[in-house]
Amino acid sequence: LAIRANGLALKPDEGEPVYLVFNGDRFPICDLNDAILVHRQNRSDVTLIDFPRKSGKSYEEKIHIDAGGQVQRVHRQYDQRDTSLAVDRDWPVILVLSSDAMKALIDVSLPHRINQWPAAMLRAGLMVRGSTIPGRSFSLHDREQLFELNEMILRLKPHWLADAGGLVDQGQRIWVGSNVKIDSTANVLGPVA
Predict the structure, then answer these.
(1) Are 47 and 96 contacting, i.e. CB atoms less than 8 angstroms apart?
(2) Phi/psi of residue 83, each to 5°?
């Protein structure tokens, strides 16, 4: 991966320009102003943004149901914390870089995996710090997390879907629009006319 010099932005109206790099395997829901503020307070070249880890459930129950709707068995799982040293390919979720850091990275060959970028940045002489901000990120490769993301967007930020689809809010979570294309694989929660 290479960063091109012509891709760098001009100085903003106020403050130092910063660049946000998002991990393409994750979908973060957070206030990006918090990420920028933490980066500026850190006074570092690069800030690796992560979110508080979800504490493990002490007890989880999964019910296995056959095609006829009958319960076949119940799988109970008790608190098992993963103590392995597995590499987290989904970390960091967001990188905030100063303009000087971006200029320094023009001459650096960055690894394909974003979790290997901090080492390359340190070798380039950049000051790298990590911070945690309020929010959550969802894996775009995990079906269960995608359902959680959909539920969260529908519950907390339904206007995102309306704005993206050119829909008009009619109140009580009803949106109306014309020439809106709905993918054939979409799960629709209500009537579409």
Answers:
(1) yes
(2) -105, 10
Q: Assess contact for 3 and 101: CB atoms under 8 A.
A: no
- Length of the chain, please? 193
On the CB side of 134, CA atoms within 13 Å amount to 3
Q: What tokens appear for 56 in the block?
A: 């493990």
Residue with tokens 């109140």: 171
First-to-last alpha carbon distance for the chain, in angstroms, is 45
- CA dihedral 66→67→69→73, nearest 10 degrees, is 0
Q: Is the peptide bond before 118 cis (omega within 30 degrees of 0)?
A: no
pLDDT tier at 14 (50, 70, 90 boundaries)?
A: low
- Is pLDDT of 31 > 50? yes
Q: Convert the pLDDT of each residue in 91-125 to its tens digit.
A: 888 999 998 898 888 888 888 888 889 999 999 99
